[in-house]
Amino acid sequence: MKVENKASVKVPGKTEETIQSVFETVPKEHLRGLSRVVLVDKIVPDSRVPLPTTQELPGLYHPRQGNVQPWCEIALSALLPSDGFFKRLAGRLNFKPNLAYLILSLQAQHYYLTLSHGIKKHQYEGAIRTYVDQYHKIWREKQSGWRGKLFKPLQPYIDKWARSLRKKYQEDKKK
Predict the structure, then answer these.
(1) Looking at the 3D structure of the chain, how many domains does it have?
(2) Are strands 71-75 and 59-62 parallel, antiparallel or unpaired?
């Protein structure tokens, strides 16, 4: 996958390697046709997207138009805020997982809009969300080091505990 950096914002180190590692978790047949990922400062207003929402978009999928292959655009200003010390710090600390989630969501849009069949328009959002969650979990497990391997056997117990807490919260909310 070709990565183009057209941003003036200083990009954290190993961003291109992070992007490539995310694409390695997804099956190759799901990437068919997707040509490039472009890193920009902000999403440029487009005739397809209303002007106020483009300033807040962290990413945009551009489907195939004519003989131009589909591609993804990522706005670094949404992932790396420049106002306030703590916002900048939080943006830098969460950059890799946020970037991975964003890339997976754009790739899932590509997969469901171009390659999968039998999904109706109103089902796209849920299908894309489950796809992204599934592959983001796989990517996280590949990225985790010794801590991930240490807590892997405890994961079923933690999930069971989370489900029981969620159930208790829902019951309390009903009352």
Answers:
(1) 2
(2) antiparallel
Q: Which residues constitute the domain of residue 167?
A: 146-175
Question: Which tens digit of pLDDT belongs to each residue from 23-33?
Answer: 999 999 999 99
Q: Are residues 109 and 150 in the same domain?
A: no
**Distance in angstroms (rounded) separating the CA atoms of residues 108 and 32:** 12
Asked if residue 79 lies in contact with residue 90, where contact means CB atoms within 8 angstroms, the answer is no
74 beta partners? 39, 59
Which tokens in the block code for residue 153?
């056997």
Give the percent of the chain with pLDDT over 90: 60
Q: Give the helix ranges, DSSP H, for 94-144.
A: 95-110, 124-143
Residues with Cβ within 8 Å of 123's Cβ and at least 6 positions away in sequence, in order, are: none
Is residue 71 within 8 Å of residue 152, measured between CB atoms? Answer: no
For 48-72, give one letter per residue: b (16+ CB within 10 A) or e: eeeeeebeeebbbbbeeeeeeebbb
Looking at the structure, tell me whether residues 92 and 120 fall in a common domain.
yes
Q: Would you call 9 exposed, middle or buried from its count of C-beta atoms within 10 A (0-12, 13-18, 19+)?
A: middle
